[in-house]
Amino acid sequence: MSVNPALRPGKFLPKISKRRSINPLTRHELTKFLTYTQQVAPNVYPLFPCAARTDLRQGELLALQWDDLNLADRFVEVRRNFTHGRLATL
After folding, report:
1. In which domain, by residue range, is 48 found?
2. pLDDT tens for each residue of 32-49
3. How many structural domains compose the chain?
4. N or C: which end of the chain has fewer CB within 10 A?
5. Residues with Cβ < 8 Å from 69, sequence gap 6 or more?
6. Residue 18 has pLDDT above 70, yes or no
7. Are residues 42 and 66 both part of a single domain?
8. How does pLDDT run across 67-76, given as a tens digit for each residue?
9. Which residues contact 12 (CB under 8 A, 6 or more apart)?
């Protein structure tokens, strides 16, 4: 009989006290960061507002293509991920 590990996730996940806490930027900090980034790295600047507004991970951002964006309905469809130097479809 096989065992389903999903029934005991605590065995595989770190204890809550060992997990990293999330400390998001404040609105003011984000504005300062975006202003600075636009000045010093204008070629990659569009990634940062997109990341801040969508909560996409780095690999998902790097794998975005124009047909993943629906500007009329204002959504992003995540179809690919860039990880370990490779583009993978989800």
Report:
1. 26-55
2. 999 999 999 999 999 999
3. 2
4. N
5. 76
6. no
7. no
8. 999 999 999 9
9. 5
The secondary structure of residue 4, as a DSSP letter, is -
pLDDT at 28 over 70: yes
- Same domain flag for 63 and 90: yes
CB burial of 42-74 (b: ≥16 within 10 Å; e: otherwise) equals eeebebbebeeeeebeebbbebbeeeeeeeeee
Cβ–Cβ < 8 Å for 90, 77: no
| Selection from 84, 21, 30, 20 nearest residue 58 by Cα | 84
Say which residues have a Cβ less than 8 Å from residue 34's Cβ, sequence separation at least 6: 45, 48, 49, 52
Residue 21 belongs to some domain of the structure: no
Q: pTM of this prediction?
A: 0.67
Q: Work out the end-to-end distance of the chain between its first and last CA atoms, rounded to an integer number of angstroms.
A: 31
* 14: in domain: no
In a shared domain, residues 47 and 64: no
